[in-house]
Amino acid sequence: MEKLVIIPTYNEKDNIRQIIGAVISLQQDFHILIVDDGSPDGTGAIVKSMQAEHPGQLFIEERSGKQGLGTAYIHGFKWALAKGYQYIFEMDADFSHNPKDLVRLYQACAHEGADVAVGSRYVRGGKTENWPWNRAVLSYGASIYVRCVTWIPVKDATAGFVCYKREVLEKIKLDKIQFVGYAFQIEMKFTAWKLGFTIKEVPITFIDRKEGYSKMSKGIVKEGILGVLKIQWQSLFG
Fold first, then answer.
1. Are β-strands 58-62 and 30-36 bridged in parallel, bridged antiparallel, or unpaired?
2. Other C-beta atoms within 10 Å of 135: how many?
3. What domains can be seen in the chain, in order of their start residue?
4. Relative orientation angle of helices 69-83 and 182-194, to the nearest 10 degrees
5. Residue 25: how many CB atoms within 10 A of its CB?
6. 94 and 15 in contact (C-beta within 8 Å)?
7. 49-94, pLDDT tens digit by residue?
8. Which one GO biological process term can you cite for this protein (predicted)?
């Protein structure tokens, strides 16, 4: 019991069965925790129906209502630490992250000296596919903005495909993480970096979702813009 992939879900019935199957088919002993925020489309029920097929490997935590990506991951991190996992992963349910890249993220942390491995779109070899131009510009611009404001040496600080060593999550005060949307990913990486942990970016191809709907909103973008300023301000003066 070493590796846990946390997948937050809200209305992912079109993807959930396939993404679980893809992770398990790697045959690398990845366990999966679905954190479902009361999906009205029945996502949670699909996961529970699959648990008998994958005993001891597939788990679900159900929460009441949509509470935000950040709180879903924090819930999952605490669950993983309590269960003794050594490598804890974040991954989307919509196949924008290729499950096969989980192996490369694990290798970076287990054998290549990383404490945090980030599946990165913006290092050499990384790229995006099928993204509308406005999303691509927004994302790349955000990555530059984050580096300019925080000085963090990570080119894809907003990335949501990540492997953390247990020691990182144990040292981060998870209850003090403030943001739940776009800025959550930035805050987690920034905090790990400030604590002295080594972050390695692993090039990936990010593919825009084919099924379901994007969770991006104006509120999430606003949180990202203002949140980055707040993160750096608190680091300097807090």
1. parallel
2. 14
3. 3-237 (3.90.550.10)
4. 50
5. 10
6. yes
7. 999 999 999 999 999 988 989 999 999 999 999 999 999 999 999 9
8. glycolipid biosynthetic process
